[in-house]
C-alpha cells in the first residue's frame, strides 16, 4: 500500500462505515479475515466491492437469480403500502394465504391433474379419431371411467346394503330395549333386597328381645 493512501481518519465517515461493513461481509463469504488494513483508499474500497460482486456472481446460478427476482416481485406485490384500503386487505391476505400453502396447493393440483387424465384419457383418443381437437362437456361426463359398470354399484348391492342397514338399526333398538329392561330389573332387585334386609334386621331384633 502506498504511503499516499489516506488513513481511516482522512476517509469520510460514510466510507469508514462502508469499510467495516465490507470487511465483515468479506469475512462471511471467506474472502478475507476480519483484520482490516490500517489504511484504505476510496478506490480500494470500490475495487474490493467489485471483486466481491464478481465473486458472488460467479457462485450464483441462473435458477437462483430467477428465484430471487420472483421473490422480489412477490414481495413488492404483497407489501401493504400506505395506499392500501380496507377493500384491498382481503385480497392481500388471500395472496399471502395462497403463498403460505403453496406446497399443499401444488400437491392438490397434481391430484387434480391425475383425475383429469383419468377422465380424459380415452376421451382424447376418441376426439382425435373423430378429427376434433377439443372435447365437449358430455364427452367428459360420459367418460369410460365414470360410466363403466366396474366402477358403479348395482341396484341389487344397494338393496342388500339397505337391508343390512335396517337389520342393524333393528338390532340396535332391541339392544336398547334390553338395556332398559335390565336396568328396571336391577332397580327392582335392589328395592327387594333393601326391604328384605330391613325385615331381617327387625326380625333379628325381635327374636333377641324375647
Task: Describe this structure as you would to a colleague.
It comes from Nitzschia inconspicua. With 210 residues, this protein is mainly α. It is built from eight helices and no strands. The protein folds into three domains: 59 residues, no CATH class; 52 residues, no CATH class; 57 residues. Helix 1 packs parallel to helix 2. The chain is elongated. The N terminus is likely disordered.
Helix and strand content put the structural class at mainly alpha
What's the quaternary structure here? single chain
Residues in helices, as a percent range: over 70%
Number of domains: 3
Shape: elongated
What can be said about the biggest beta sheet?
none
Annotation, overall tally of beta strands: 0
Global Rg: 42 Å
Q: What is the residue-averaged pLDDT?
A: 75
| SSE string, helices as H and strands as E | HHHHHHHH
First-to-last CA distance? 131 Å
Keywords: Coiled coil
Protein name: Dynactin subunit p22
Coiled coil: 161-188
Organism: Nitzschia inconspicua
Amino acid at each position: 500500500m502506498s504511503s499516499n493512501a489516506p488513513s481511516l481518519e482522512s476517509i469520510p465517515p460514510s466510507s469508514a462505515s462502508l469499510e467495516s461493513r465490507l470487511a465483515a461481509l468479506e469475512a462471511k463469504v471467506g474472502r478475507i479475515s476480519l483484520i482490516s488494513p490500517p489504511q484504505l483508499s476510496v478506490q480500494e474500497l470500490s475495487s474490493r466491492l467489485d471483486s466481491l460482486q464478481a465473486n458472488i456472481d460467479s457462485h450464483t446460478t441462473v435458477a437462483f437469480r430467477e428465484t430471487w427476482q420472483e421473490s422480489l416481485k412477490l414481495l413488492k406485490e404483497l407489501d401493504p403500502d400506505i395506499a392500501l384500503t380496507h377493500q384491498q386487505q382481503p385480497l392481500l391476505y388471500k395472496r399471502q394465504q395462497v403463498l403460505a400453502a403453496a406446497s399443499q396447493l401444488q400437491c392438490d393440483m397434481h391430484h387434480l391433474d391425475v383425475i383429469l387424465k383419468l377422465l380424459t384419457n380415452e376421451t382424447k383418443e376418441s376426439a382425435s379419431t373423430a378429427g376434433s381437437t377439443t372435447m365437449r362437456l358430455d364427452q367428459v361426463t360420459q367418460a369410460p371411467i365414470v360410466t363403466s359398470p366396474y366402477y358403479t354399484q348395482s341396484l341389487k348391492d344397494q338393496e342388500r346394503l339397505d337391508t343390512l342397514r335396517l337389520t342393524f338399526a333393528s338390532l340396535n333398538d332391541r339392544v336398547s330395549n334390553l338395556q332398559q329392561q335390565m336396568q328396571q330389573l336391577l332397580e327392582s332387585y335392589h328395592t327387594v333386597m333393601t326391604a328384605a334386609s330391613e325385615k331381617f334386621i327387625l326380625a333379628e331384633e325381635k327374636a333377641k328381645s324375647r
